[in-house]
Amino acid sequence: MSADLVRQDREENVTRLDDHRSVPVYRPDTDIYDDGDRVIIEADLPGCSVDDIDITLENGVLTIKSQQPRQSRSGWRPIYTEYGEGRFERSFALTDDIDQDKIDASVRNGVLRLELHRSESTKPRRISISAK
Hints:
Residues 21-132 form the SHSP domain. By secondary structure, the chain is mainly β.
């Protein structure tokens, strides 16, 4: 496979904010699940530790950011590399049924897991009926 084909394939998930930026911004692969009481987001952030990840919530938009440092191997000369330096960034607009004060985050084996709990007031509930 030629280097051009590999480069094209790799850059499908890359967002360049402007042409003069030297560090690419990657959009991490993400899975989103719904278990009824919460929405679970899992994002792949390979090589990123807890200290490398920044999660913010502003005006109903949840944003994940991380920096992938360049990995160098002392005494090794690269022949071909796909792992590289770059930033990860992804944003999600939250719906009104998410309790913005109840968001839990954890990272394990390069996978960030966010648990977005639903507001109690938006969950289905049974209304009791009284006889008169």
